[in-house]
Design goal:
about 65% helix; about 0% strand; 6 helices; about 130 residues; Rna Polymerase Sigma Factor, Chain: A
């Protein structure tokens, strides 16, 4: 029996909420394209897309525990974060979030298990 995408995403967010980085990597892999598309649609500068995508997924890591209720539309929640972040970037009203925007790609790299992450980002992720 195959599990539908909505259920899989819900299970992944529940595991991310418990600090499971492997589940986070799978969630990132499943939704990265949708988030990139959402952000690219809003931003006038494509060079800003990676920073907004990174900050979106860092925010997902931090807020996952608040979005584990059955029936949560995980795709809509995450693409919604992306839309807000992209709009803030486009308007120049970006807020810091859990990690400063300039460090979000480094923090995302740490969450995804990539090497070369700064001490500041490691502290921000584990705080």
């Amino acid at each position: 029996m195959e599990i539908d995408d909505h259920t899989v995403l819900g299970l992944l967010v529940t595991r991310v909420a418990a600090g499971d980085r492997a589940a986070f990597r799978r969630l990132y892999a499943r939704l990265h394209t949708a988030v990139c598309d959402q952000v690219d649609e809003i931003l006038s500068r494509s060079a800003d897309v990676p920073a907004v995508v990174s900050s979106t997924f860092v925010e997902v890591w931090w807020l996952a525990r608040h979005h584990t209720a059955p029936g949560t539309d995980v795709r809509r929640w995450i693409t919604g974060i992306a839309a807000v972040r992209a709009t803030e970037r486009e308007r120049g009203t970006e807020r810091g979030g859990p990690v400063p925007p300039e460090a979000s790609h480094v923090a995302l790299g740490q969450l995804l298990g990539e090497s070369g992450t700064s001490a500041r980002a490691r502290r921000a992720i584990s705080a």
